[in-house]
Specification:
With 196 residues, this protein is of the alpha+beta class. Helix content is 35%, strand content 26%. It has helices spanning 13-31, 41-52, 64-77, 127-135, 172-185, and strands at residues 79-86, 96-103, 107-114, 123-126, 137-145, 152-160, 162-166. The strands form three sheets. The protein has a three-stranded antiparallel β-sheet with strand order 4-1-7. Strands 2-3 form a two-stranded antiparallel sheet. Strands 5-6 form a two-stranded antiparallel ribbon. A hairpin with a 3-residue loop joins β2 and β3. It is elongated. The chain starts with 12 loop residues before the first helix and ends in an 11-residue tail after the last helix. The mean pLDDT is 82.
């Protein structure tokens, strides 16, 4: 009679798992990865993959809406050097005016804008305020008497309130001279390096 010996099949699932675990342990040993004797296959695979393909630093994805918001804000707050002449006779005695502009990208931008002689050398205003000054109009009312009939006619029209002349930006030398003049006149605070 022949004896029947039960031998596990070579391709049985338990032997495949054991062989895979042994291969992974051998690979972990070569890579210098420490593991406990009862580690599972999945955990060991994760540790090996972490060493072989280290995680890249997370890429900061900037939202295109945020980029657009920053671009619009920077464009709006860019300084424009210009001469400003008030053409409105109702504001003839005014030395300047506080201009306030708001939008969802820049928030509130408020600046005192001088007129006339104070701006001969140029005055810096943000682009957003420059745009408002450029668009501003006032109602000009003029009267004229007809020489033949003696009748008075009133003419009204909307005309620009300011004459704006854009000047070139200051050079580095001009900025240095301006800084020295402002420092000498005490018009800007000068830090002496000490805190109170």
């Amino acid at each position: 009679m022949s004896e029947v010996i039960n031998q596990p099949e070579i391709n049985a699932p338990s032997t495949v798992v054991a062989n895979e675990l042994e291969l992974l342990k051998a690979r972990a040993d070569k890579l210098g990865i420490k593991y406990s004797p009862n580690i599972g296959i999945e955990t060991l695979k994760e540790r090996i993959n972490a060493v072989l393909a280290p995680e890249k630093e997370p890429v900061v994805v900037v939202n295109s809406e945020d980029e657009e918001r920053n671009r619009v804000r920077n464009d709006a707050l860019k300084l424009i050097r210009c001469q400003i002449v008030n053409l409105n006779p109702n504001k003839k005695a005014w030395e300047g005016e506080i201009i306030t502009v708001w939008n969802k990208y820049t928030g509130t931008v408020r600046k005192f804008v001088p007129f006339g002689e104070k701006t001969v050398e140029g005055y810096h205003v943000p682009q957003i305020i420059y745009n408002v000054l450029k668009e501003r109009k006032y109602l000009s009312i003029s009267t004229k008497r007809d020489p033949k009939t003696g009748e008075l006619t009133v003419k009204t029209q909307w005309v620009p309130e300011f004459s704006l002349t854009v000047l070139p930006q200051l050079t580095k030398e001009q900025l240095a001279e301006l800084a020295a003049a402002q420092k000498a006149s005490g018009s800007i605070p000068v830090s002496d390096g000490f805190t109170d």
